[in-house]
Amino acid sequence: MARQQGWFALILALAIAAGALVLNVPPPLGLDLQGGSQLTLQVLPSGAIKKVEKEQLESVKEVLDRRINGLGVSESTLQTVGNDQLILQLPGEQDPSRAAKVLGTTALLEFRAQKAGTDAEMQGLLKLKRQATAARIKVASEDPSPDTKIKAEELADALKALGIAVPPGSSETDQLELLLATVNTKIVGLYEPSQLTGKDLVGAGRQQQQTGNGWDVTLTFNREGGEKFAELTKSIAGSNRLLGIVLDGRSISEASVGPQFQVAGITGGAASITGNFSSEEARDLEVQLKGGSLPLPVRVIEQRTIGATLGTENVRRSLVAALSGLALVALFMVVVYRLPGVVAVIALSLYALFNLAIYSLIPVTLTLPGIAGFILSIGMAVDANVLIFERVKEELRSGNTLIRSMDTGFSLAFSSIIDGHVTGLISCVALFALGTGLVKGFAVTLAIGLLLSLFTALTCTRTILRLLLSYGALRQPNYFLPANQLPVKAAG
Hints:
Blueprint: H1 2-24, H2 31-34, E1 36-43, H3 54-71, E2 77-81, E3 85-91, H4 97-103, E4 109-113, H5 119-141, H6 152-161, H7 172-188, E5 196-197, E6 201-208, E7 215-221, H8 223-236, E8 242-247, E9 250-256, E10 270-277, H9 279-291, E11 298-306, H10 308-337, H11 339-361, H12 368-397, H13 402-434, H14 438-469, H15 488-491
Antiparallel strand pairs: 1-3, 1-11, 2-3, 4-5, 4-8, 6-7, 7-10, 8-9
Helix pairs in contact: 1-11, 1-14, 3-9, 5-7, 10-11, 10-12, 11-12, 11-14, 12-13, 12-14, 13-14
């Protein structure tokens, strides 16, 4: 009796904890239930690669996976489609433009030394870059300060001098962006070939500048990269040549190296990119660098926002279906199995509560296939109870006492329950290993349901039944089986 009370206390504590967890941390919903965004990405051949192969598609997917994780978009899914496409789903994301920008950028990082004899041209371009950058910030912030102003005629002259054709109707912001892009490209032309790339990076981070509101991106190299960086900085230390940091063919930062580094260069295997980034820009660059370079370029060919209305309707219909099914199952169990049926309903309620708690704890993203897996697992849980109660009935009909019949019923049904659940779990493993996207979600929820079904059928049902039978008023065989089916001795 004390043992049963201990088990009951444990079950009660688990139920309270699960209820609190479900109330405070509801399970996350998938794209089909809460809406969000979906991007279709096409991997493009490049250079010597004329056709995208499966291995290259998987390599791109691996890099994009790391970038998505870095963006902090929860419960996203990325799956390959056909030979050269990927579909990215972002539940809850209503503005996928930032994700599209980060994912579609190659992120090839290079460190390059300035060519000798290009000082005058470099200084002219850098001055223009500073003016255009300040003007862009001023336009964005509507800063009226004259110090940051670039005159319209100066902007027109600069655009003309660089041979930039301005599209008709372009705003000042558009013209400044064109000017900056061209200036950065021309600056790259003043650098020597790359001597150090992002392949030697082992980490990236960001930090706010001590003066000003800008952000820097910090880099950490591996041993080989650290040695290359020291050699590179040593070669230009104390000269007027700059160290250029180039991302995807665009100069994002230019730094001078002081004469104190002429002996050994900048050692330690760390560097920072001082590009006067905003917090979001620094974060995006950090994500790109951590994710690594894309082996092949990617183009966003479709960007779709899915409204939440469809998800809400699906949730409502699924809940109605689930609750209706549960109510019918509960009615069937009580009518057919009497007192054990009532216990089974309690155990199934606990089963559903534990399931939802596990979904919140792991967490498991709920999708329509996931809900289908949950409902199907309820059937398995009911089946386990039916096997036990039918065995108990058989024992009662053969004239065994109530307590012995119950113990024998659980023992005899155990192997059948285990066999059924193990075969179900094997199916789940196969679905998860071979399936993609929503199929995996179905397999996960079904597997969780099967494991919990074992616990509730063999532990919760048995504990509650034994506890109830400790009360003499409930220890009646006809509460388990109609009196006309009981042997005369037992019925009496």
